Amino acid sequence: MSAATLQFIDTPDGPFAILADESDRVIVSGWTDDPASVLARLRPDRRPAEIQAGRTAAADAVHAYYAGEIGAIDSVAVAQRGTPLQLAGWEALRAITPGIPLTYTGFATALGSPTAVRAAASICARNAVALFVPCHRVLRGDGTMGGFAWGTRVKESLLARESAV
Fold first, then answer.
1. pTM > 0.90: yes or no
2. Of residues 161, 122, 12, the one with CA closest to residue 138
3. pLDDT of 32
4. What is the pLDDT of residues 119-138, one digit of tens each?
């Protein structure tokens, strides 16, 4: 990848970073204002050669999401690279109904492999485009938060926001 645009916006959950490719597809996003934390979500060989500050189309969807239009994130174009299972998993995450989170077992079942709970958890952990591919909608089997790259406080806030709609 040759160049990318990096934008930081303020949200009720803290600063939110969006890194988009030349086609304005999100390649990394998350709650940080640290460029190094953004790049750390990409393998070194997949990092853009050049990053410029600028405006991304995805920022409007983030603002709309936080204004109560939870579905605004659904149509944001993303570009992730991974195995066929990871790509299928990231697409399946986008199909989870807001306000009705799944457990890792439920997510594995949605992928067609009810016993592949570790693989399901790995798909969530390797998701670089948080919010737009809503891995925060997957919980531990006992209903607790589990891990989240951007912290459980943010995960809890997102789930509360989505369950209120």
1. yes
2. 122
3. 97
4. 999 999 999 999 999 999 99
- What is the assigned CATH class of domain 84-163? mainly alpha
Cα separation of the two ends of the chain = 38
Evaluate whether 13 touches 158 at the Cβ level (below 8 Å): yes
- Bridge partner list, 18: 7, 29
CA distance 46 to 104: 28
Q: 16 φ, ψ to 5°?
A: -125, 130
Token pair 């607790």 in the structure block, residue: 144
Q: Is the CATH number of domain 3-75 1.20.120? A: no
Active-site residue list:
135
Closest to 60 measured CA to CA, from 1, 3, 16: 16
In the chain, CATH 1.10.10.10 covers: 84-163
Instruction: Provide the CB-side half-sphere exposure for 98 (13 A, CA).
Output: 21
Using alpha carbons, select from 59, 60, 69 the residue that is nearest to residue 19: 59
Contacts 24+ apart (CB under 8 A), 70-78: 70/98, 70/99, 70/161, 70/162, 70/165, 71/98, 73/131, 73/132, 73/134, 76/26, 76/132, 77/23, 77/24, 77/25, 77/26, 78/25, 78/26, 78/27, 78/129, 78/132, 78/133
CB 12 within 8 A of CB 157: yes
